[in-house]
Design a protein that fits this description.
Layout lengths: L4 H15 L4 H42 L3 H22 L1
């Protein structure tokens, strides 16, 4: 939503007539302050959402990469049995 020069000029003329020349700078500063605060809040929310998305991706990748705890325990038990067999056959 961009405004052209003509639209900005019309808005300024209407503001000048409605508000008056004395209060127009005060209102312009207040509007600029509100716009700045809105942009800061928008940026903060955008960063927060981006961080949440990244954390969800990391959690998913970690869950996919980690082997199930039961299979790891089974593998360790198999290795232990093989070691015991190898040790008992050498004696």
């Amino acid at each position: 939503m961009s405004l052209g020069f003509g639209e900005i000029l019309v808005v300024l003329i209407i503001a000048f007539v409605v508000v008056g020349p004395r209060d127009l700078p005060k209102i312009a500063r207040a509007m600029a302050r509100l716009i700045r605060q809105f942009r800061q809040m928008y940026g903060s929310i955008k960063d927060s959402l981006s961080l949440e998305e990244e954390m969800a991706e990391i959690r998913k990748a970690a869950a996919d990469a980690a082997p199930p705890s039961g299979s790891l325990t089974k593998e360790l038990a198999d290795i232990r049995r093989e070691i015991n067999k190898a040790g008992s056959t050498k004696i």
